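Amino acid chain
________________
===
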Amino acid sequence: MAGLVELVHPWIDSSSAPLYTVVFPEAADDAEVVSFGAAREEWAKRANYPVAWVVDLSHLVTATPKQRRLFSEHLSRFEPHDIAYNRGSALVVPSAVLRGIVTAVFWMKRPRFPNECFATRAEARNWAKVQLRGR
C-alpha cells in the first residue's frame, strides 16, 4: 500500500502493514510502556489510512496497576485515530489472567473500535485481516 507511515517500536511488527502486530514482552517497566504509547501516538499524526491490529499478550506475565493506567491513558489519547481508522483489534489472550488484564484496561477506557479476543495469534490474524478488508 502506497503512503504507509513507518511505525517503529521494538514491540511492533509493521511488515504486514496496514496490519500491525504488537507482541508485548513478559514484563516492561513504566518507561517502556510510555515509549510504546508515544511511538503509536506520533505515528498516528500522519497515518491517515485504515489499519488493523493483532495484539499478542500471550507472553505477558505482569502489568502493574500503574502500567494498566498508563496504557489506558494512551488509549484515550489514541482514540481519535482508532475511531477514524482502526478496523479491528484482535487480542491474543490465551488465559483467564490475561483476559482479566484486558478487562481492567478496557474498564478504564472502553474501546470504540471492533475488538475480539482469541486464544492464538493465527486466529487473531485471520479475524484482523477480514476486518481490514471488510470495511
User: Anything to note?
Assistant: Helices lie at 30-44, 65-85, 96-108, 121-134. The radius of gyration is 14 Å. Residues 39 and 82 are 15 Å apart (CA to CA). The chain has a mean pLDDT of 91.
